[in-house]
Structure formats: structure tokens, C-alpha cells
Write a structure and sequence with these properties.
The complex is a heterodimer of chains A (306) and B (262).
Chain A lengths: L1 H35 L6 H17 L4 H27 L4 H27 L3 E3 L9 E4 L2 E4 H23 L1 H11 L1 H6 L4 H26 L2 E3 L4 H14 L4 H21 L8 H15 L12 H4 L1
Antiparallel strand pairs in A: 1-4, 2-3
Helix pairs in contact in A: 1-5, 1-6, 1-8, 1-9, 1-10, 2-3, 2-4, 2-8, 3-4, 3-8, 5-6, 5-8, 6-8, 9-10, 10-11
Chain B lengths: L6 H4 L5 E10 L2 E11 L3 E6 L6 H9 L6 E6 L2 E2 L5 H7 L1 E4 L11 H11 L4 H14 L15 H13 L5 E5 L10 H15 L2 E5 L3 H7 L2 E6 L2 E6 L1 H6 L1 H10 L7 H5 L1
Parallel strand pairs in B: 3-8, 3-9, 6-7, 7-8
Antiparallel strand pairs in B: 1-2, 1-4, 4-5, 9-10
Classes of the chains: A mainly alpha (306), B alpha/beta (262).
Chain lengths: 306, 262
């Protein structure tokens, strides 16, 4: 019995870690959605770019800290390039145009990654060994906890607290919240659109870089579809949670990550192919029962807002 | 009765003017050569039946719409093509007929955002926001979410948001709609304070004739997109043409204004 109990606690701990990572991704998607009313489908490829940076840094023999620093640099730079070249010129266009544009960026980045890795390395992926030590486990109370789980939880708590302070206590945070509530009126009242959008994209980029480090620790073989599946699942979680509010979106991301972790642990290894089916069956159930979002609290749904 | 198109009367230096403004939508004249001047330290009422072009005029003056012909002038400059935000920074503010408050922000934050938008320092913005909410009787709800406000309170929030920018001119589009009749005198006092203490010019659109007659220094009457009359409240009250225009459309059925105008 104790063995099973330990295994269960193990599952819960792993699920918490995955929930934290997915919650962070949801924050990144929700921040940009708040000010642009745009689901950035290329968000996963920002994470992929970060993972490749870590992988190439490992090959070049950089230290872990140098690699992480490079990862943040590349992802933030790429976020800002995306904002200037895609979001800013298309900002006044219809949501459909922007959505398709982010799909295009997503596929473009994946294709570039695939080409570069195939041409240069002659293989589909590169191992990122530099952060692999984070996957090592420490034993706490009979439960093996991987270091990455602890780091993920700490990063999530620090990032969310920092974000709450920024949004709640600063001028630009107030302007961001105003813009997220009613962008047109906010602009009329003198909120600089470029300023709030750039900040949202920048914050989302910082979070993407952190997620790249955390994901690479557990999936250290980096390919061009890195983070793609995670991204799709997080998007579903965000919608289930309620995308028009940052905190409900975040909770949705966390919930779907946690649920995925728990189901993954509960399913026997040979049945893990059923994981997506089980997950999406749950999602359909939630959307039937709470169409406005799991945590929307009876408020009008995104359908009214967009 | 003063002829509104008389240049001698309307061409005073400074001020905020719509000069011979016309606006047509697909051939229909919403405004036809309307000239309206607003100067510091006065309250001008803009009245007329529904569809007379009041909101179109306000939209043109605040940059939400452009005139087909004519110009908008602000302190001698042609600002016809300026964006609403640029006009806001220059000292023009407006309130909206439909609430444009940020539902997810607190009442105080709604006012703060507007103050920050015209370049006030955060501390200054916060202090002024609190002060104005006190004046407008919203101090108790300062920390409540704006989305939960009652209709009348939401109107006053709109006024607070316009006034916190310390405008030289403020255009109020039906600010008293939905306000309980008992609160009208208090609201009239607020408008007078804007004129007397801030030395601002106020353009007031409202269907509440009690309020209009009580606070306005001048009244401008629009009917079918054209100026019908302009004058002091006493002159307007005496003018039966105005009453006829009103009674025809009966835009003010519900209040005492009809009797007053007869």
C-alpha cells in the first residue's frame, strides 16, 4: 500500500510541476490576448527558439548560466521582432488577419528550425544537455521530486507575484489593464498603444524564455515541433479557464497541466496513447457545462467581447 | 433672438468653435452650416429634438467624426483633422452618452487612467481622482469595480473622468440622463463649479430642461441639422418656434420642460 501511496504522491508532485509550466505559458498567451485580442499561435515557437538556443549553447560547451542567459536574450529579441514586424503593422486589421498571420509566423519558425537543424546537423533534433541536471531528483519525504518541479513552482509563484504587483501597483500596469478592458477607450484617454503592447509582448517573451528552460530540462531532445503539443493543450486550457481574464486563463493553463500530469500518472504505460483522448473528453465536458469558461464566474464570455 | 450665423457675434478671439460645419451621411444633411462658439467661463446648452444633429456636432468638435465642410477651431488654430486624443491633450474633454468606463477597473482607477493620459504624474493623478470622486459623491464607491455601478453613478464617473484632465472646454453628452430628479440640483452645482472654479467652457447636451434652464448662460437650439435659435435661457423660453420644434418631436415628454417652454 505504501508503495502505491508513494507513487500517487509522486504523480501529484509531477502534475503540479507540469501545471506550473502550463500556467506560465497561459500567462504569456493571456497577456498578449489582453491588449491585442489576439491568440498568438507562434508563442510555442518562441519557446522552441529558446530551447534551440539552449541546445546550441550546450554543443558550444557554454556553462548553464551562459546558456540560460542566451536563451532569454534570443527569445526576448525574437518577441520584439515579432511585435514590430507582425503585430504592429497588422494591429488595426481584423482579428482573422492577425490570427492567420501568427499561424504563418508559427510555421515559418518551425520550418526554419527544421531546415537549419537538418542541413547543419543532418538530424531532426539536438540534445540540450546543459540544463539536464535540473531533471535530477531529490527525495523529500519518500517522494522523488525532480529539481525542475521545484524550480517550476518557484518560477511560477515569483513570476505571478511580480506580474500582479506590476499590473496592480504601477502606472503602466494600470494602463495595461485599462487597455485590456477597452482598448479603444484607453487609446482615447491617452494610453499609448505601442507602449502597452510592447510591454505585454516583452513580458510574454520573458515568460516564454523561462518556460523554454523548464521544458528543456525534462524534454532535452529539441526538435522543430518542440513545445507544439504543449502549446495546443495550453490553448485549450486557456479557453476552458476563460481567456478574457488573465487569472482565469492562467488557472485554466494550470488546471489542464495538472490534469494531464495526473492522468498520465494514473494510466498504465502501455495505455498512455489514450492520454489526449481522455484529456479532450474532459475539455468537451467542461465546455458543455461551463461554456463561458471554468472560472468565468458567470461573467459574459469572450464571445461577447471579441 | 440672435442670428447664430452673424459673424460679429460668433467671431470672438480664442475659444472653441465649430465654424459653418456641415456633415452629410450619404446625401442626408445631419448638420447644415452650423456655427457654435464656446468660450471660457460659460455654460452653453445644446438642445433640440432627437435626430437634430446634437451628437454629430459633438463628434465633429471632439474629433470622433469629420465635417463634410467647415472647420473646427481651437484658440485660433484649425484642429479639424486632429485626433480625439490630441484634442484631449490640448484641453478638450468629453463625456459619452453611452458609458465607456473600464468595467474591470475600480472607479478611482478609471479616473486615474484619464489623468495619466494627459501627462499627470501618478501621485498627482491619484490625488486629483480622489478629490473629484469626493466632489461628485462617488467617494464611497472609489474602490468598487466600475462595472457594478448604478446608471446614475456611471454618468458621474464619466464626468469625473472628463474633469480630471483639467480641460479648458468640456462637452457633456447627456450627463444627467438616468440621474434621479432629486440629484439634479447637486449636479447643476458641479457644472457651475467647473465654470466658476476651473474657468472652463462647458457645452451641455441634455433633455432635462430644468437642468438646462438652471445652469446655462446661453442656449443653442438645433433642429434638423440647422441652427434654429440661439440666446439666453429667457430668450429661448420665450421663443415659441423652439417649443414647436420640441413638441413636434416630443423629445422631452416626460419632464417639466414642455410646460416651461410653452
Amino acid at each position: 500500500m505504501t508503495v502505491i501511496g508513494a507513487v500517487d504522491a509522486q504523480n501529484l508532485v509531477d502534475a503540479l510541476g507540469l501545471g506550473a509550466i502550463y500556467g506560465l505559458m497561459a500567462v504569456g498567451i493571456g497577456l498578449v490576448f489582453g491588449v491585442l485580442r489576439l491568440v498568438n499561435f507562434a508563442y510555442g515557437q518562441l519557446i522552441m527558439a529558446g530551447a534551440f538556443t539552449l541546445a546550441y549553447a550546450s554543443r558550444a560547451g557554454w556553462s548553464t548560466w551562459q546558456a540560460i542567459l542566451a536563451c532569454f536574450g534570443v527569445v526576448i529579441a525574437l518577441s520584439l521582432v515579432m511585435e514590430v514586424t507582425v503585430f504592429r503593422p497588422l494591429r488595426t486589421r481584423s482579428p482573422a488577419v492577425m490570427l492567420v498571420a501568427t499561424f504563418a509566423v508559427s510555421f515559418l519558425l518551425q520550418s526554419i528550425a527544421l531546415l537549419v537543424v537538418l542541413k547543419v546537423q543532418g538530424q531532426v533534433g539536438i540534445p540540450a544537455s546543459t540544463v539536464a541536471q535540473l531533471a535530477q531528483a531529490v527525495t523529500i519525504g519518500g517522494v522523488d521530486v525532480r529539481k525542475v518541479t521545484i524550480v517550476a513552482l518557484v518560477v511560477a509563484i515569483v513570476a505571478l507575484s511580480g506580474l500582479a504587483l506590476l499590473l496592480g501597483k504601477t502606472t503602466v500596469g494600470l494602463q495595461m489593464r485599462a487597455a485590456a478592458t477597452d482598448f479603444t477607450t484607453a487609446r482615447l484617454l491617452g494610453v499609448s498603444a505601442n507602449r502597452v503592447i510592447t510591454l505585454a509582448v516583452l513580458l510574454a517573451g520573458v515568460i516564454a524564455a523561462a518556460v523554454a528552460v523548464l521544458l528543456t530540462a525534462s524534454q532535452s531532445y529539441v526538435t522543430s515541433d518542440f513545445a507544439l503539443h504543449d502549446m495546443i493543450i495550453v490553448l485549450v486550457g486557456v479557453v476552458v479557464g476563460g481567456i478574457d481574464r488573465l487569472w482565469t486563463a492562467t488557472l485554466g493553463g494550470f488546471a489542464i497541466g495538472f490534469t494531464r500530469g495526473v492522468i498520465n500518472g494514473a494510466l498504465p504505460t502501455d495505455k498512455s496513447v489514450y492520454l489526449p483522448s481522455a484529456l479532450f473528453a474532459l475539455v468537451i465536458l467542461v465546455l458543455i457545462l461551463r461554456p463561458a469558461g471554468l472560472f468565468a464566474g458567470g461573467r459574459s464570455s469572450v464571445v461577447d467581447r471579441v | 433672438m440672435v442670428d447664430a450665423t452673424n459673424p460679429a457675434k460668433t467671431r470672438r478671439p480664442g475659444g472653441f468653435r465649430a465654424a459653418a460645419v456641415s456633415r452629410s451621411f450619404d446625401g442626408v444633411h445631419a448638420l447644415d452650416c452650423v456655427t457654435l462658439g464656446l468660450y471660457s467661463h460659460e455654460v452653453v446648452g445644446l438642445i433640440g429634438p432627437n435626430g437634430a444633429g446634437k451628437s454629430t456636432l459633438v463628434n465633429v468638435m471632439t474629433g470622433f467624426d469629420f465635417p463634410t465642410s467647415g472647420a473646427v477651431e481651437f484658440e485660433g488654430q484649425d484642429i479639424t483633422r486632429w485626433s480625439p486624443h490630441r484634442r484631449g491633450r490640448a484641453g478638450l474633454a468629453r463625456t459619452f452618452q453611452h458609458s465607456h468606463s473600464f468595467r474591470d477597473l475600480s472607479v478611482r482607477e478609471n479616473v486615474e487612467v484619464a489623468a495619466l493620459g494627459v501627462g499627470q504624474k501618478p501621485r498627482e493623478a491619484r490625488a486629483r481622482a480622489s478629490e473629484l470622486l469626493g466632489i461628485l459623491g462617488l467617494a464611497d464607491q472609489a474602490d468598487a469595480l466600475a462595472g457594478g455601478l448604478a446608471h446614475g453613478d456611471e454618468r458621474r464617473l464619466g464626468v469625473a473622468r472628463a474633469l480630471v484632465t483639467e480641460p479648458k472646454f468640456v462637452l457633456m453628452d447627456e450627463p444627467a440622463a438616468g440621474l434621479p430628479e432629486a440629484e439634479v440640483p447637486e449636479f447643476a452645482a458641479v457644472i457651475r463649479a467647473v465654470r466658476d472654479e476651473h474657468n472652463a467652457g462647458v457645452l451641455l447636451i441634455d433633455h432635462n430642461m430644468t437642468l438646462i434652464m438652471e445652469v446655462c448662460d446661453r442656449i443653442h437650439v438645433l433642429d434638423q441639422g440647422a441652427t434654429l435659435a440661439e440666446g439666453t435661457p429667457a430668450e429661448i423660453r420665450a421663443n415659441l418656434d423652439v417649443a414647436a420644434a420640441y413638441l413636434g418631436e416630443s423629445a422631452i415628454r416626460t419632464d417639466a420642460g414642455v410646460d416651461e417652454l410653452r
